[in-house]
Amino acid sequence: MSNFLNNQNWRYATKKFDATKKISTEDLNTLKEAIRMSSSSYGLQPYKVIIVENPELRAQLQPAAWGQLQIVEASHLFVFANDTNLGDDAIDEYLNTISITRETPIEALAGYGDFMKSKISTLEPAIKNVWASKQTYLALGNLLNAAAELKIDVTPMEGFVPAQVNEILGLDKLHLNASLIATVGYRHEEDATQFYKKVRKSQEDLFITL
After folding, report:
1. FRET pair for 144, CA 20 to 30 Å: which of 104, 105, 154, 169?
2. Which residues form the Nitroreductase domain (predicted)?
């Protein structure tokens, strides 16, 4: 656990990436697997993760992300996009995956499926989309922790215009909405932010024990 806490103290929101350093295929696959294994409500994972490597596409995205340099300087750009068309079909597909993975008769999962549908499919679209977007933050947490263990920097970003990102990446056609962005790579030696002491609330201020 001490290594985990040391990694948390090491990581920070990198402001300047070293554009010459690229994440290896092996490490990238590790990060992808960490995201894939992330916790999610009901296990549904109502999102996609778009990994943008194309430099021209990233240059188009930069203005939509308030001009932030990390968008073009980082090794990789991850766009977490929640499903905007989540309904019974997605739940049925998930149940089928459970059935195959666990070698369980699909009929035995009918009750669980009906329960999920009663809680999710009945939600107003706006509320459902907010719920789905929150799931992307759980996946981001796994990315942050796995990357820190590999000494790879990640900067989570909410500073962008979702509608513009959706248009550039064609997400609307896929019934997806950009929920958050994470730039991933290696800190530049000139990034002064890496030397700042981490500022967090004390345990006394943060926790309430009842």
Report:
1. 169
2. 10-186
Residues in CB range of 131: below 8 A, 6 or more apart? 41, 120, 123
Average pLDDT of the chain, as a whole number: 97
Q: What is the arithmetic mean of pLDDT over 176-195?
A: 97
Beta bridge partners of 190: none
Q: Which residues make beta-bridge pairs with 155?
A: 183
CA–CA dist 142, 31 (Å, integer): 8
Q: Strand locations in 53-196, DSSP E?
A: 76-83, 153-157, 176-185
Q: Which residues contact 91 (CB under 8 A, 6 or more apart)?
A: 44, 113, 116, 117, 120, 121
* SS3 call for 153: strand
Q: What is the pLDDT of residues 74-114, one digit of tens each?
A: 999 999 999 999 999 999 999 999 999 999 999 999 999 99
Fold of 2-86+121-206: NADH Oxidase (3.40.109)
Integer Cα distance of 1 and 56 in angstroms = 41
Instruction: Using alpha carbons, select from 205, 192, 170, 153 the residue that is nearest to residue 50.
Output: 170
Domain chopping of the chain, boundaries: 2-86+121-206
| Token couple for 183 | 């730039």
Closest by CA to 156, choosing from 186, 124, 181, is: 181
